[in-house]
Amino acid sequence: MTKDKSTPKLPESAQLIAQTMFELRCEDVKLVDLRGISDVADFYIVGTCGSEAQMQAVLTALQRNFRSKKLTSLGIEYKAGVRWAVFDAVDAMAHLFEEQARDEYALEKLWKDGEISDLKAEEFISDTVGEDSGDEFI
User: Fold this and answer.
1) What does the pLDDT read at residue 126?
2) Main-chain dihedrals φ then ψ at residue 46, nearest 5 degrees
3) In what order do the strands lie in the sheet with 75-77?
4) Continuous segment of H or E residues that includes residue 1
5) Could you tell me the domains of the chain?
6) Along the chain (138 residues), what's the average pLDDT of each consecutive run of 10 residues?
7) What's this model's pTM, rounded to 2 decimal places?
8) Radius of gyration from C-alpha coordinates of the chain
9) Which of 21, 84, 112, 137 holds its CA 20 to 30 A away from the CA of 56?
């Protein structure tokens, strides 16, 4: 069940994953807090991609962003046509799905013992394109 609470304090890796997902327009981004539940990772950040091309772009951006910040990542699990990809950043993992695959795999239900939170773009990126900033163009 999705909680409507504020996002817990996240490690830099989880923040960077969420930021990258929002910058590249992933939808329905959720945080699954697995601290004390899973030995694999403390946090899963789950997002929906509109296409395989978008998924590849997010994975490429995650690699680049982690490298530029000198953050540890263990790698990517991705195969063309599978519609699900994983980016492993040790304490946090990005799970990217195409919409139908996300419904089929129902990852959030698998980890329902963890606290699940809806993430909001404005929590991770400072200038969301398309928002009404109040500025008017002349």
Assistant:
1) 77
2) -110, 130
3) 2-3, 115-118, 27-33, 43-49, 92-98, 84-88, 75-77
4) none
5) 10-107 (3.30.460.10)
6) 59 96 97 93 96 96 96 92 94 96 89 91 74 45
7) 0.83
8) 15
9) 112
